[in-house]
Amino acid sequence: MASCDKFGLGDVKNPLAPGPPSAGAAIVYTAIGASDANGVGSSVQCVPLDHTCPGMGYVYVTARQLVAQGFSVSLLNLGLPTVVIGRDFEALGQQYNRTIVGNFIDLEMPFVPRNATVVTVFAGVNEVNTITAALGAGAGGSDPNGYIDSQIRAFGADYGTLMSGIRGRASSARIVVLNVPNVAGLPYLSGASASQRQAAQRAAVGMTRTVVNPLASSMVSVLDMMCDARTYVKSNYSSDGMHPNDSGYAYMAGEVVRAITAPSYPAPQANCASMSVAP
């Protein structure tokens, strides 16, 4: 029986799956993301589309670590602060007065170069914040859990569009995606109400379990932000409690580099204690 391949990305038996780059190879690296891709919260933040910035965000640190390992790296950082994955989340956030300048599908995915050999994607935190903002303004009415679950499904549809678009443009690229951490466990929500933390947890865990983690295959490596204890260490965050600082971005970069260069990368955990920090 053929294995399921929801987004046409290949599966663990795909003989055409891209392997790790050979020693000294040229890597054409494209990053898709939001403020994290620009290193907001780090000691050296970069303006959007500055690909030569000596930044301390994980995208720039990843590129420098690859160079230090002997690879030749051409970086295209498409990250834009405040963006979300698709038009639906962009419209939802704007409806509830969140500053959102665009979305990955319209503003980033079309510019992935066809010769890209590595693409990284990190989405989810801005979307969770958008969902909880909508709930706080009355969206969902008497069924907040049903509303959250519908937004998880919308996130999944957008993610499918994004991944198919990336693969359509860069068919042989090695793709590394970062799953969604449990936002309820991040420092910036430590003082939030129980209902807000529970909503954030339901959204984040649902996105990771049902949308991002199932992408893991020989074609896609999933970096497990959800279940890595380092994700929740307060000292890995900047003063806003949401964006990592230099040490937080360094841990992320180290994992991205491993996912790019290792012959195989471990699949994300199906369950862990971090998934239930908000009872």
Give a brief outline of the structure.
The protein has 279 residues and is of the alpha/beta class. The protein has helices at 58-68, 87-95, 104-107, 125-136, 144-169, 194-212, 246-261, and strands spanning 26-32, 72-77, 118-122, 174-178, 220-223. The chain is built from 7 helices and 5 strands, in the order E-H-E-H-H-E-H-H-E-H-E-H.
Structural write-up:
This protein has helices at 58-68, 87-95, 104-107, 125-136, 144-169, 194-212, 246-261, and strands at 26-32, 72-77, 118-122, 174-178, 220-223. The protein is built from seven helices and five strands. Strand 4 (174-178), helix 6 (194-212) and strand 5 form a beta-alpha-beta unit. It has a single domain (26-266), classed as 3-Layer(aba) Sandwich (Rossmann fold). The longest helix is centred in the middle third of the chain and has 26 residues, at 144-169. Mean pLDDT is 93; it is low at 1-15.
Summarize the topology.
Elements: E1 26-32, H1 58-68, E2 72-77, H2 87-95, H3 104-107, E3 118-122, H4 125-136, H5 144-169, E4 174-178, H6 194-212, E5 220-223, H7 246-261
Parallel strand pairs: 1-2, 1-3, 3-4, 4-5
Helix pairs in contact: 1-7, 2-4, 4-6, 5-6
